[in-house]
Structure formats: C-alpha cells, structure tokens
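Collaborator request, handled under Task 6.
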Amino acid sequence: MSAARPLTTLRTIAAIAALPLLALTACGYGSESKDNDTSKVAAEGKKLSADTVRIGYFPNLTHATALIGDQEGLLQKELGGTKATYSQFNAGPAEIEALNSGSIDIGWIGPSPAINGYSTTDGKGLRIIGGSASGGVKLVVNPDKVTSLKDIKGKKIATPQLGNTQDVAFLNWIAEQGWTVDAQSGKGDVSVVRTDNKITPDAYKSGSIDGAWVPEPTASKLVAEGGKVLLDEADLWPDKKFVITNIIVSQTFLAEHPDVVQAVLRGSVKTNTWINANPDQAKAAANTKLQELSGKPLPANVLDPAWKSIQFTDDPLASTLNTEAAHAVKAGLLKQPKLDGIYDLRPLNKVLTAEGKSTVDDAGLGVK
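Structure tokens returned to the collaborator:
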C-alpha cells in the first residue's frame, strides 16, 4: 500500500448521466429533506440584493460549518437584512435536485454530487464556490475477523452508496492492492456492500458486514460498537488533506445576487475561523444543532473522536477533486466529459483577502 495517492491532473471529467443507479452522494443518510428557519440572529440591518437566501446542508459533522453557522447565527450576521432559511438533506442527489429546481440557492455538499450536478446540466447548474471540510473518513473493521489490511480480501465491507465518494475511494484502494471487484455489483476479491450509513452500525452488530469505509460520525459509531480503525483515508493523501465537503451555488443565483453569495462566504470563513480557534465550543454547538434536528445528541464516545478527524478549511482542495474524479473514471463509474469551469473562487478569494488570509486555487478548473 502506498503512503499517499499521487495527484492526477484531470481537467475533463464528469459523472455519467446515463447511470441512473448512481446516486452520487458524499455521506447521505437517505433522500429526505427538512425545511426550517432556525437562525439565532434576526435578519436585521441593511438588506442585500435578495430578500432571502435558501441554504441547504446535511445534519452531519462533516457539514459542521453550516451546522454551526446556522446554530450560532454566524451566517445570518453577515447577511444583515437578507434572511437566511435552511433546509436539511440526507443525500446529495436530493440537494442537487433542490438546487436545480430553485428550492435552495446555496448548499454544503460532497465532491461526488457536485461533480454529478455540474456534468448532468452540461456545466450550467452549479459552481463550487468554496471549501468547508477535509478528512473524516475511515475504514473500520471487526477486529475478530480482520487484523491487517491484507485480511480485507474475501471480506464484506460496507460503503454508503454505489458511486458515492467513499465507495469510489474504497474501489480505488482495492485496485491499488491488486484485487479486482466489479464496480456495479460489488462482487469480487472483496464484497463491497452498499449500505445506508444510518443502518451500517446495525449491520455491523448483526455480523452481516465485516467492516465499513465510511464518513464520520458513522465510523466512530462502529468503533463504539467494538470496531477498530484499520485505516484513516487521510493517510492516503498528500498532506493528509482531501475534500469531503464543498460549498455550491446555483449559477443563476450567483449571477443575480453576487453580494449575497459573498456574504454567505464571509460567514462561512468567519465560522471556520471560530471553529478552529474554539474547537470545544464549536463541537458543542454542532452537537446542539444535531440534537435539535435529530432529537438526540451524539454521545461523547462518538462525538469526540469523530470531531478530531475532521479539518475545517476554506480551501476547496481542488486538486483532490481532480484525483477523486480520476479514481471514479478508473473504476468505470465516470466517463470523461468536462469539469472546466466547475469552480468560481473569485468571491471567496475576495473575502479571504479582506480577512487577511491566503487565497485558494482552483487547480485550473475555474471559470475563465
């Protein structure tokens, strides 16, 4: 096993529109969405060019920038008299559908659905306008059945969904071991069992899977059930960084309300700054919001290790999006149309410059 994946420059890839079975999600828990307006700061002050901005995210720790920005009113504060409303989604395709239909304007989402959403609209639906999180993905196994990486061969390992971000990563890792698996069926030297994250812990407890390549907090839930972390995906990447959550925007909304988009990005940057300066408070704030949305908080033995494995960053880590997409192409899950123009980081870089922070790069995939 190599210590790090080489970065592959791939500037012309996109998801196969003809694969309807692929629901390309980052860390989905289903397909429902939930609308609410839980801003802790009233919409007051000068209104921007839109009365309202509708924001989507997952009730998930890898979306903690949005969770905390909502919970603490940090996004609303930057929007002034423009009101932020929020919708929660449990899968990437549902959020992309909402963006395309105009039900939301801006969303926090994983790389695979962003790629799919861009390509299936011929580059007209969305732009990636910022980063949010890196890491937070682990291979957790039953230590009674698996004691080393080579023991994965012949075992049943869960991923969240066919073609999702973790599924692609695991298929690529399998190929790097010299093993073969049919990407569509999941059958081969390893049995890849596509299992919704919300039921993966029960599948693990029942013994129907031997482990899982999953995002947080599912990984830490498995550890709490006696599982062992065999591999942290961050260890496979240069600098231990890879994109897990991006910020996307409708191209129509970006064109019509650039001031609103910039305000949301400013709120995101300030939220990430606060998260990184106050990790314990931020962790508690995220858990408070999760409790509000799900009815119960994460226990400390799940929350604490999960939180430690996620890095919050404004950088979309564009070169790693290239690499993730290249892995999907290699697995036979993607063709190679264009991703040129998927990024527009100009508004973010204006915010970063104003905040005295370093600007970020689009790896050659930005608007010209």
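The cover message to the collaborator said: "Confidence is low (pLDDT under 50) at residues 1-35. The first strand starts at residue 14 and ends at 15. Please let us know whether this matches your experimental observations."
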